[in-house]
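Subject: sequence -> structure tokens, single chain

Hey, anyone have a minute? Need the predicted structure for the following. Not urgent.
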Amino acid sequence: MMIPEVEKEKEKEKEYHYILSYTRSPQEKKIYAPRLAYSMHLAYSEDGSNYRALNHNSGVLFAKATENENGTLNAKSLQNPYVFMLQDGTYGVIAVRTEAEGQQDQESKGAVLFFHSTDLLHYREIGLIDLKDDVHVHDVMCEYNELTHSYVIRWRDGNGCFFQNTMQNLFSLTSASTPIRTEAFALTSASPDIEGIIPRNVLQVPRQVVQRAVHRLTPPNNIAIQVQDRIIATSIEDLKALKAIAKYSDGTTSIKKVDWNEELVTWEEEGSYLVTGTVVQEHYAFPIAANRADPCITKWKSKYYFVATNDEDHNQTLYIRESNTIAGLVEAQETLILDTSTYDDIKGLLWAPELHIIADELYLFHAATSGDFLNEECHVMKLRPDGNPTHAADWSKPQRVLRNDGTYLCEAGKVISLDMTVFKWKDEYYACWSERQFVPVDLGAWLYIAKLDSQEPWRLKSEPVLLSKPDYGWANNHTYVDEGPFALIRNDRLFLTFASAAVDATYCVGLLTLNLHDDVLDPEQWTKWNYPLLTSRSVAGEFGPGHNSYVMDDQGITWNVYHARPGLDAPRACGIRRVHFDIDGFPVLDLTEERDLKQELAKVSVEVVVKHD
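Reply:
Had a minute. Here:
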């Protein structure tokens, strides 16, 4: 029997969902500044009517800054983004590039900005398409014409006149035809109830592409807990070793410890017992440490240690906490290990301490100044053999970091360095840090990377390589800053998170990634995400999250240790949250406890069959 055409159309529609692109209206600058609002946002719909914002209603595509001859950056934004499908089934975004706050961009006169994406998750800025006219573009759209095998770019100028250009290849930025006058264009759009939305166009997209974007741009929810129905055990240890598998809405899983009711089993008697248990959810109420920032937790010789910047005394001291468990650090006593009166050349601004194990020795990396702010430098302290990390006397005098030629890392009074971190990758140690030139011009804070001498880890083994500049709106919001790098290595992939923007409620966490066979010292082989992983919109009540570190506990669980503000203008404070990994193995930093474990699923049971040898 022939299937009616209308039924065919309905079946086809099931294979497609809908993506809506939009920008937002700016709010107060600490809430949602123009550099954040003027970026492309995405919402999705399964039926073309009901839309939900992705990525916490935050931007997923930002315009890159341009660079001046003296190295300073010109922040840029975008407006009127239009998302469309290319001939090969991948995606393009065309938009009007503006100055950071939305003003007309003189560099973009007569041109529009073009991006390419294979999955609506990662975007590559191709550049400005020259439209062969000397006017500012105010609106734009683009579609592929199957009949002419060309792309048609339609646009509007400031006088309300409409034009169009054609191109065979959008990647050939100067190949557009001469513009001709044309009729006004209209967009297929929607107006959902999303805060601040300035809607653009709707694109019908294959269902699997939309679902993947939803899974990547929405924190998952725990939907099920799975445990074995039956185990054969000879002792209580067999039961203790039994874990649960938590399943999530995006198809991912995680292993969970279970507190089993051991008293329900008589281990001396063979038989079958129904044992109940509760899936363990570690609880860390935010904050776990007030007036502390830039936190780091490290395990050393079976104990955990916590260090952080001390905002309580305006960064004049560094304290350390010790515990047998990560949870125990929350209430652990603090012990002073460095202040600004012990050494003549350590005068203040003790920032961002990090504990790192290098060639089986423990070191403390931190920033300090010998005078004022412009003398801030990365320093390293070493714990003496068999020393106690909580004893100040067991730490060496802070040593300024040196280049491989023996000179100091930065020129005092002109360039500062801070936030040095260390990681081991394929049997080599690397240091990554933030550096900011102030003289002759302020370039903002940039990330650098170099090999590190494992025997003298205050000395670099290679020349520093520039890794990242604050070239996106979320990184140069209020100030141009990339800082606070920290490495997370998983499944042959290197993740390097870093903090950006002003150290206020606009602070956020960005991400750089590297694959196993890539060269750490080649910046072209790193991938920089176009949008941040963690912002003030990621977790309710946590403003300006950033400068985080990672630690793995005895169960193999990775924890994110970070700082944020419990109020818009509240002092910085530290928090801890489990790191989840999404469907592509990338870190998820916004999985809150209530999403991580659904409490009504936490009660589990298993049949325990006791057998003795």
